Amino acid sequence: MDELAELVERVLNGEEPSVSLIERVFREAPLHALVEAADQLRRLAVGDRGSYVVNVYIAYTNVCTARCPICSFYARSPREAYTLTPAEVEALAAKFRREKGVTEAHVTGGFNPELTLDYYLDIVRRLKRLGLTVKAFTAEEVSFIARRMGERVETILEELREAGLDAMPGGGAEVLTDRVRRIVAPAKGGADEYIEVHRVAHKLGIRSNVTLLYGHVEEPRDIAEHLVRVRRLQAETGGVISFIPLRWRPGGSALASNPEYREVIEEKQTPLYDLRVVAVSRIALYPLVKHIVAYWVSLGEELASVALRAGADDLGGTFYNEPVVTAAKGGGRAKGLDPERLEFMIAVAGLEPCERNTFYECRGLRSKGSIAWRSAEWLQWRPSM
Q: What is the pTM of this model?
């Protein structure tokens, strides 16, 4: 039995694969076989549905004391810095609620030491009044708030939950090995701390996404260790909503300009590497994590659509107003993609489009054109098994 077949057999039997097995498959498995296996497991997990949520991305501040070498978003000078008031956050969300019909607010920001706990609570309450699902504040942000306020993480999460927090985004995971984190995010907490915040959140009934920021200094073993950590968390709590591999965009970050890492970064900035990461993620996390996201904001539209047949089943969302990846591409804020475009990307992949809510409950279709796209003869392809 080859190693890919062994990995698939183990996860189908409900066994936890070893880090070394996942690492070997990542390094050595032919990409076509890897993608085919991941696509089959995707079908077993969710059928042929491809999904997205209609959401707005609100980055409430770019002031950040972490100043990670991997980041292009944080303010380099006071002139570049901004912090939205809770009222401005509400007004921005209300605009997209009114004009685009968003159902979810995705809220993250930097480590701004000037902000109080009341600031974060006020944001959540205002967004809830708009009728939005509030997915806000990464594990790293929650840890920062707890340290800043001199409170336990559990206390902060309880207060956010009482204010109306529905779920947490998965950002800040980077790669869950301390070797990598010391290079890419030295001012952030360790891998254990990230997992612990999610564990506490899940205990309190706050579900969360988990991410993997790849395409820089990680090695296959780092990715394998990351996946095993996520699998164990999900086995323990069941609170992981989805897993999101995020391709890092170097942009003008300090890490990108460091000659020591230039070569290892360049070799990972390829579509084939992207598909390998997505496929291995699906296989290694099966069947515990049901949803794997092809994050179109970092992958681009065409590759994200391809990734839907490499193990992913979801495009993330419309992500109106996204600023973080966009900063690495040259600044400004992304306009986002309308549901019509996302549904077309899903249909092109041969899947059934579905608008979902934050927790992957299908809401149907927003675009009447999706029916025509699905019925078009040239879209009715399936890979050979």
A: 0.94
